[in-house]
Specification:
This protein is of the alpha/beta class and about 350 residues long. The protein is built from 11 helices and 16 strands. Strands 6-5-4-7-10-15-16 form a 7-stranded mixed sheet, with helices on both faces. Strands 11-8-9-14 form a 4-stranded mixed sheet, with helices on one face. A 3-stranded antiparallel sheet has the order 1-2-3. The mean pLDDT is about 95. It binds 5-S-methyl-1-O-phosphono-5-thio-D-ribulose (MRU). The site of 5-S-methyl-1-O-phosphono-5-thio-D-ribulose has 18 residues, from α2 and β9. Keywords: Amino-acid biosynthesis, Isomerase, Methionine biosynthesis. Pathway: Amino-acid biosynthesis; L-methionine biosynthesis via salvage pathway; L-methionine from S-methyl-5-thio-alpha-D-ribose 1-phosphate: step 1/6.
Length: about 350
C-alpha cells in the first residue's frame, strides 16, 4: 500500500495530508496552532471520524504549550476552553469527543504544568498509534466477513486518509490487495463534496484495487446490473442499539441492500460507538453550508436564492445492518441487543 501518511507527528510538530487537494496534488499542511487544527477540521482538510479525533487530540497537545508559564489552576481553566473550542468543530463524529475527553481525563488530577504538557503529547501519540492497530484488525475481521464476496459497493471515504492507516470500510481492500484477494469495488461519488470520487477512488488505485466510480443516483441500477453482493460503509457514530450515522447517502444504500437481499456491513472502531445514547434518534446530524450544493468548482449550479437543505450525514437503523465489524470482532444483528457489553469491555474480543 503506497498511500501517503495522512497524519504526521514529528518532533512536536503536526502535519496533515491536505485532503482538499486530492486527487490532483499531494500537499501537506503544517498545523501550528489550535486555530489551524480547528480550521482544518471544519473545512475538511482533515476528515473522517478517527482522523478528526486524532487531529483534535494533537490540537489539545499543541494548545497546552501556550500555558507553560501559568499556574496549574489557570492551565486547567485555559485548556478546558480549548477543549470546548475544538469540540465545537464538527458535531456528528463521536471520535472527536471521545479523543478530547480521553485527553482531558489524562490530566484531570495532574498538578504540574510540565507533567500535564508531557502527558498530553504522549496521550495523543497513543490515540494515533492505537487507531492504526485497530484499523488493521478491522481489516482482518472484514476480510473474514467478506470471504465469499467479490463485488462490493461503498460510499464516502472510510479509508487510510480518514484514519491513522488502513481505514475501516476500505481496510479489507488494502489488506486484501497485499494478500492477492481480488475485489471489484464500486465507489459512489458521494455528493456534495465527492469524498468517493476524489478520495476513495484515488486511495484504492494506489493499492491496485479494481475500483469503478458511479454517481450516487446509479447505486440501485448498479447493484442489479453488476451483481453487487454486499455493501460496506464506515460510521461516524453508532448508538447502543446499533443505529449508525454515516455520510449522507448511506441510508439509501442500506435500504437498497434490503430490497436486493444483499449484506450491509458497517466497519468501525470501538471509538465510534456512543454507548451513552440508546438510539440513532439522539445523534446530532451536521448541516453544512449551502454553497456545497449550489456551486461547483467556483461556479453557481443553482439559481441565486435557491432554498437548500444540506445534511452531511444520515442514520441507518440497526434493522437494516447485517453486522458491525470492529477491531474486537464482528457483531452480528442477533447480538445488537448486547452491544454495550460487547464493546464496553476494552481489549476483549467480541465472542459472537
Ligand atoms: C473511517 S471514516 C468513517 C466516516 O467518518 C466516513 O464514512 C464519513 O462519513 C466521513 O464524513 P466526512 O464529512 O467526510 O468527515
Amino acid at each position: 500500500m503506497s498511500i501517503p501518511t495522512p497524519i504526521i507527528w514529528k518532533n512536536g510538530q503536526l502535519t496533515i495530508l491536505n485532503q482538499h487537494k486530492l486527487p490532483n496534488e499531494i500537499d501537506y499542511a503544517a498545523l501550528e496552532t489550535i486555530e489551524d487544527v480547528y480550521e482544518s477540521i471544519v473545512t475538511l482538510k482533515v476528515r473522517g471520524a478517527p482522523a478528526i479525533g486524532i487531529t483534535a487530540a494533537y490540537g489539545l497537545a499543541i494548545a497546552s504549550r501556550k500555558y507553560k508559564e501559568q499556574n496549574i489552576a489557570s492551565f486547567h481553566l485555559r485548556l478546558h476552553e480549548d477543549y470546548l473550542y475544538l469540540a465545537g468543530s464538527r458535531p456528528t463524529a463521536v471520535n472527536l469527543f471521545w479523543a478530547l475527553d480521553r485527553m482531558m481525563g489524562k490530566i484531570e488530577n495532574v498538578e504540574s504544568v510540565n507533567e500535564a504538557i508531557y502527558l498530553l503529547e504522549a496521550e495523543a501519540i497513543s490515540i494515533h498509534q492505537e487507531d492504526e492497530a485497530s484499523c488493521k484488525r478491522i481489516g482482518r475481521n472484514a476480510l473474514e466477513a467478506l470471504a465469499n464476496v467479490k463485488k462490493i459497493m461503498t460510499i464516502c471515504n472510510a479509508g487510510t486518509i480518514a484514519t491513522a492507516k488502513y481505514g475501516t470500510a476500505l481496510a479489507p481492500f488494502h489488506l486484501g490487495a497485499e494478500q492477492g484477494r481480488e475485489f471489484e469495488v464500486y465507489a459512489c461519488e458521494t455528493r456534495p463534496v465527492f469524498q468517493g470520487s476524489r478520495l476513495t477512488v484515488w486511495e484504492l488505485q494506489q493499492s491496485g484495487v479494481d475500483v469503478t466510480l458511479i454517481t450516487d443516483s446509479m447505486a440501485a441500477h448498479t447493484i442489479h446490473a453488476k451483481g453487487i453482493e454486499a455493501i460496506i460503509v464506515g460510521a461516524d457514530r453508532i448508538a447502543a442499539n446499533g443505529d449508525t450515522a454515516n455520510k449522507i447517502g448511506t441510508l439509501n444504500l442500506a435500504i437498497l441492500a434490503k430490497q436486493f437481499g444483499i449484506a450491509f456491513y458497517v466497519a468501525a472502531p470501538s471509538t465510534t460507538f456512543d454507548l451513552t445514547i440508546e438510539s440513532g434518534a439522539e445523534i446530532p446530524i451536521e448541516e453544512r453550508k449551502e454553497e456545497e450544493i449550489t456551486t461547483f468548482a467556483g461556479r453557481r449550479i443553482a439559481p441565486e436564492g435557491t432554498k437548500v437543505f444540506n445534511p452531511a450525514f444520515d442514520m441507518s437503523p440497526s434493522e437494516l445492518i447485517t453486522a458491525i465489524i470492529t477491531e474486537k470482532g464482528i457483531i452480528y444483528k442477533q447480538d445488537f441487543n448486547n452491544i454495550s457489553s460487547l464493546i464496553g469491555k476494552a481489549g476483549e474480543e467480541v465472542k459472537s
